[in-house]
Amino acid sequence: MTRADNVDVPGLLVDAEIDDVPPASPTAFPDGRRSRRALVYLAFCLVLIGLNLRTVFSSFAAVLPEVTSDAGLPGWAVVVLTTVPVTLLGVFAPLAPVLARRFGAERVLLGAMATLTAGLLLRPADIGGLVPGAGHLPALLVGTAACGAAIALCNVLLPGLVKRDFPHRLGLMGGLYTTAICASAALGAGFTYPVFTATGEWTAGLWFWAVPAAVVLLLFLPVALRQHPVRHQAVSDGVNVWRSAVAWQVTIFMVLQAMMSFSVFAWLAPILRERGVDGGTAGLMVSVSIVLQMLGSLFAPALAARFSDQRTISVVVALMTGGGFALSIFGPLELIWVWTGLLGLGQGSLTAVALTMIMLRTRDGHTAAHLSGMMQGVGYGLGSTGTLLVGQLHQATGSFTEAGMLFLVVGSLAAVFGYRAGRNRYVGG
């Protein structure tokens, strides 16, 4: 199977355990046999885990005005709560392979889902009864941080687990897994506000998402506990990506797309509501935009792989994303569905093209894994500055207009670095 055969599922070809010695073994089943029924159950669990990895971001954004008003959040807290989870995706990503070597990928995933469930339960809590005057803010901060750390571990370990256990179904599992992650963001954006409307409590809208996380935790529990971890050592192989100009161009491309991607999750709903769109419609718009992201992510990798280089497609999707974001902020309101649709198609395609670069710019699996780790650590860590800057600009000016100008600049820079990363070259020459 060649690299070109698999560019439609780039994330699945990057294994966080690829440097492990001895190699990580496939997931064990009760009877020792890898029956079809057992594999279907494992696939179901992994897809459901993916379905919980973005609700944290989009659910908070859907009721941000209500949370800010009712909990009396200061401006700095809003900025921190929209920035910290993305930052932690980069901070905790390098720890995932280390923990997997010691405890096994399945048990680390189980711990991550337990942490995610606990964070989702803690996040809306009012601890004023325990700490007078504390209110919701401490729980929001700690719960959100726990969710970000847990999602970081899942982001890194899930693709390798899928590749290890489903080597002959990568296309199917890749489609299910990536669709589930996109769908989680759409669900968080679309259903949180209706839950708030039905209950009259924003806390119920956030607590709701602890339910699917807890269900997955219980379903995956017997699978993870059945595993017997084997101590592994990491033997480095492949090119030193940190010294490669091509790797840095791809990584900066990733940083710029992450700045826009997570700003959509964190701020698009508040932007629409500030423009006069009601909460339910704003959530629906964000959900539709994310569904269009899914369409873009399905077609863009195959299209990118058809070209000898990816300069043209990288420039086009970067400008679509930056322009769609800016127009969603200050374009004519009558065309708001067009602007958010343009943003969705552009963002999904941009993210997929950036991830596809992992395979197209490397010659072997070891180098691809190292480039992926570099992109996730740096990309998510610095990519969180997008949400930070939007929050600070809004706090300073009382408007999102300046953020629209910011993303015209970010989209243009993404086009520049996408053009450079898209040249037909490889990491390590």
Description:
- By secondary structure, the chain is mostly helical.
- It has one domain: Growth Hormone, Chain: A.
- It contains 17 helices and two strands.
- The chain has a two-stranded antiparallel sheet with strand order 1-2.
- Helix 1 (36-50) runs antiparallel to helix 10, helix 5 (95-103) crosses helix 7 and helix 11 packs parallel to helix 16.
- The longest helix has 30 residues, at 170-199.
- The two termini are 23 Å apart.
- Mean pLDDT is 86; it is low at 1-13.
Concise synopsis of the structure shown:
With 429 residues, the protein is mainly α. The chain contains 17 helices and 2 strands.
Give me some keywords for this one.
2 strands, two-stranded antiparallel sheet, 429 residues, 73% helix, mainly alpha
Number of strands: 2
* Radius of gyration computed on alpha carbons: 21 Å
What is the overall silhouette?
globular
The helix/strand series, from N terminus to C terminus, equals EHHHHHHHHHHEHHHHHHH
Indicate the percent of residues in helices: over 70%
Label the CATH architecture. Up-down Bundle
By CATH, the topology is: Growth Hormone, Chain: A
Can you summarize the main beta sheet?
A: 2 strands, antiparallel
Query: Which structural class best describes the helix and strand composition?
Result: mainly alpha
Query: Mean pLDDT, rounded to whole units?
Result: 86
Distance between the termini: 23 Å
Query: Given the structure, what is the number of helices?
Result: 17
Low-confidence parts, pLDDT < 50 over ≥5 residues? 1-13
Number of domains: 1
Superfamily (CATH H level) name? MFS general substrate transporter like domains
CATH class: Mainly Alpha
Question: What is the percentage of strand-forming residues?
Answer: under 5%
Spatial strand arrangement across the major sheet:
1-2
